[in-house]
Structure formats: C-alpha cells, structure tokens
Amino acid sequence: MHKELFPFFTHYPELVYFDSAATALKPQTVVDAEVEYLTLASTNLSRGLYPLAEQTSAHADIIRKLTASFINALPEEIIFTSGTTAGLNMLALMLEESLTADDAIVVTDFEHHANYLPWKELAKRKKAEFKVLKSTDTGIISESELIQTLTDNTAIVAISALSNVTGVMQDAPRLIEAIREIVPHAVIVVDAAQYIAHKAIDVRKWDADFVTFSGHKLYGPTGVGILYGKHNFLRILKPRIYGGGMVLDACSKETTYKESPDRYEAGTQNISGIFALGAAIDFIKRIGYESLQRHDQKLQKYAEERLTDTFGNLITIIGGKDYTRRAGILSFVFTGIHPHDIATLLGEKGICVRAGEHCAKPWHRNHGYSATTRLSFGLYNSKEDIDILITALIEIVDLLKK
Questions:
Q1: Domains of the chain (ranges, CATH numbers)
Q2: What's the pLDDT score for residue 1?
Q3: Which one of 359, 371, 388, 390 is the catalytic residue?
C-alpha cells in the first residue's frame, strides 16, 4: 500500500476510497506537476518565441514521447484529448466520411456509454447497421460469438479491454487477431480507459487501429486523455475539430492542415493536465505494472473470499469468482437490497463505493440487473480497508433486511 504518497488522505485519514474506476486519487508528484505549470510556466504551446513559452512546448513534446514509449507507439501517433469520451467521439466523426449505409458497426453489451453511444449515433446518421454483441454471464467476449457477428460489411469494431462493471480483462490481442482473420478491412477501436491503470499496453502487439484512455484513471488529472491511432490512418483522416495551431494555410480554397498530431489538436490544450499526465506515467513506471498486478490480485482474492464467506448465497459476485481474470474492479448485488441503499449507507460510514448502472446500461439490462454495487481498488487500498467494508456491510445488511 502507498497511502502516504496521496495527499488526499492527509485531509481524510479515516476515509476508505473504493471508487478508483470512476477516478483514481492523485499522488503528490502529479499534483506538484500541475501546480508547477500553473505557477512557473502558464504559457501556451507553440505560440510564443520567448524562452518560457519555448520551454513549455518542449516539455509537452517530452511528455508526448514519454506517452508514446509507455504504450510502444510513435510520438506522431499520440493525440492529446480531454479524455476517453472526447477521443472516441472525435474518432467517430473522423471515420464518418468513410462509412456507408451498407456498412455495419459492432460493439459489445458491456461497453461504457463512451464507447457505445458515439458508434450508435454514427450508425444512425449514416443509416448503417448497429450490432451489439452480448457477452457471457461472466463478462467475457466469446470468440466464437464474435466471429459469428462479423460479416463482410463490418466496417468498425469497438471493444473495451476491461469492463468497468465486471472488471473482467479481455484477451485483446487474440480478439483483434480473430477480427483481422474474418474482416481484415475493419477499423478496430479499443477503449483502454480501465485497462491501462492495471496492465501494460503494447499497441504494436495488440494491432488495434485506435486505442483510447484517460489520465484520471491512471492516477493522473481529469480533463486530459490520449487517442492513439496508427500512423497510416492519421496521415489521411480529416480533422473534425477546427481552430488555431492545426493549419498550414487557412486562406487557400482547400485548407491545408499540418501533419499528425498537430492537425488533430486544434486550440489550446489542457497544458497543466498534460504536465500532470507525464508525472502520472512516471509514477506508474516507478511502481511497475508487476507490483500493480500483485496488489490487484491480492485485494481481489481477499475481497471475494471475505464477501462470499460472510454473506454466502445472499450475495452475487458479478462476472464470476475467478479473481485472476479481473483487475481492480469487483461488483456485486445483495438479494432483496438495492445497491443505492448499500452505497448510501456505506458513504455515511466513510466508505466510498459506486452504485448504479456505471454508464453501462446495455450490460445491466441484458443480464437482468437494475443496478450493481462496485468496488474499485487503488494502490492506496489494503486488506484492512476490506475488513472495514465487511464490518460495515454486516451492519447495513442486517438493518436493511429487518
């Protein structure tokens, strides 16, 4: 546990925070990086010729290269966005011109709305087919079911590498390989917002065409994210957000735009967020993904054992009980008790959890849940936190059952 690295607990020392999948708490180094920009730099990118502005631009370039190295990409394949949602919406607009009414878009039922609604709306605008692949009861994409869903007219396939409801990790490289075998022409998009906080990504090995994630799931700031795209796409796709900094000639009849990534980063970026994202990546690299995974699995196993041993048939663990397939997320329901009641009463005891449909209505509706209660673990959580949770749940369940 690394609780001492997070200034949040200086102010709330007794609070138990199990909501990292919504947003992870920030270590001091991330806070310092954002404050450093605001207090010592506070200049724009690629605008000024004076030393301070040039230093700001140079540091942003360093962070772009750091981010590229972090996921084994090229710097020109890294686009700064305001988050996963913005990246996916921007991408849907960029791909719109190439989509026809004869095409189909395939998504899964456990997608976060950010990787569901942009594609649903795109299909509606283009009168294309929108297919939703139902996952198994344990939250896995069945490769055979996926293959049956793919047809020659499949133009886009969008999947999440890690569900924010079940916490189940998909075998993204294998699924992408299967898609390539059936529809090699399809554009493959991966939402890695949850995945990247728990396991390393190598975009070359994955072979997805686009991958998105947010800083704030990664112990970084809100309001900044990454859209990775293969360079062969980013050389030709037209930008869909227009403004300063992305154009070579705005006066000619046909506007001439800069090369990637500049052509996709119109206007002023969240520069303090970019600085802090760099610090978050450095933080993850210092901790190491192997340590992160060991910590995840220790808490997953302990939490599942304590919940099932204590509550037995009264509780259902969403996504099955194989903790090795999950990363940092554990959702559950109690028979006859609404998740909102659980979350509200836990909150009154200083325990922060999430309850609801977690911006994943299709999964909940398909699998017969009106809502679920979600625990999501961070580096600051411990077995002691889980013990506190179990003690509180015993009191709450007893109260609500009466």
A1: 3-18+288-401 (3.90.1150.10), 29-285 (3.40.640.10)
A2: 64
A3: 359
